[in-house]
Amino acid sequence: MNRKLAVTVIATAAAIALVVYAAFELGKRQAGSTGASVSATPASTSPENLPQTIAQGEEATRRHMAAGIKAGDMDPANGHKILYYHDPMVPGNKFDKPAKSPFMDMMLVPVYAQGDTDQGKVAVSPRIQQNLGVRTALVTEGKLTPQVAAVGSIAFNERDQAIVQARATGYVERLHVRATLDRVNKGQPLVDLYVPDWVAAQEEFLSLKRMESTDLADLVDGARQRMRQAGMSEDQIRLVERTGKAQARTTILAPIGGVVAELTAREGMTVMAGAPLFRINGLATVWANAEVPESQAALIRPGAMVRAQTPAVPGVSFEGRVQALLPDVNAATRTLKARLELANPGGRLVPGMFVSMQFMDMRGENVLLIPTEAVIQTGRRTVVMVAEDNGRFRPVEVQAGIESGGQTEIKRGLQAGQKVVVSSQFLIDSEASLKGVEARLNDAPKPSAANTAARHEGEAKVEAIGRDALTLSHGPIPSIQWGPMTMDFKLPPAGAMPRNLEVGDRITFEFYMGAEGPQLTRVSPGAAPATAAGGKK
After folding, report:
1. Which of 24, 60, 357, 442 fits 40 for a cystine, CB–CB 3.0-4.6 Å?
2. 440 falls within a domain
């Protein structure tokens, strides 16, 4: 194909380029009501200017070949980076080096990464932005306060617990507290014990005390030590020493205030040294075991403030803090258990009581924040549409953090001061989905040429039969303004080609211009009419 004919073909192929051009006109799919069109193709590469642009591109390619420049290098003529080379007639193929097109008798054309032709950007005019209702918001810095709601139940604070046990073998003479869950105060009598073993130790001590002699000091100290070993407390020893009488009975007092959670003593029973008599749980603070959804566990940290309410005490809020996230996941509800410690003034919260909780985690560090409605989840990635100057938009993959109050934390991908699209980003994306957005924006779309492209007919002689293509010497094809030439055509679908076709046979054929070059749709044996007519089918 000679140079003059190539220019003619290029002028006609502008109609084919319209398919690629229209693929980026994202608004055309909604143009029924607004007539909007969003274009990612600069004016310099519009179909009207395509022949001139290609001629300039071929000149640049020859210059690159002479200078040894390839894809990825900077073009010294314009200072732009070369992304790749391609044939505008077959835009779906990319090449790393400047060369002659394998499809047509012309040079490949470079594609640059420059301001007006950056891959992945979409241009929207101000009028169309207004019609689509495009709104943007700034990427800001600030503090995020996650707010998580959960429900749970009250339990005893196991850190506020005391065990009361017998310090010597004895008999229970009297119980002052007779039932579990009775409330007790600190220092309140619990039980009176008669301890016979204490009498002998006390009488020995008192006898030595009555003998006023300095030589007996060591013996007195030894007797005092034997009373300690028998289980008597210092207060009880001082009482014996002050009164001068043996104390066979002792009253055990409550070490803390709360409720008797466990009672094992009964009047008249014998208790051994070390036997537990009472278990007392304090009520100054209680635990709340909250069921937190697994997806929100990252929003809760130990030490975070929490406010709880219960229907049993309407109108009253109980303040507390998160103690820990327990390593226990409920497989049925997919929730984690968070342990909270709540202040319990008046002891109004009791174990088993239902409470609803609101977590308030004020975080001190500043983070990047954007409106949550600007974030688009594709399934595998998180993407936002960034608004740039001159009405241009581009998708940016980001790493999102926590979300609260309509704001989402951005850990990577954006900078403070940038603008993100918070409405109509799906219209800008054209299909309300970001599946393959970069492929659609960065690569030339491949329309279904088999259904929409114009069909052309011609007469040819078979020069060679390959695995994927037929080499044909064809005559003029007026419908595409081609002159006689020899070129390769992609094989037609199965069943559309004669079985006994051989080199040298005369055929008539039909084809269209596909993404990878001319694609045959029908091959028939025999000579064609004297004047081949092409057109659409």
Report:
1. 24
2. no
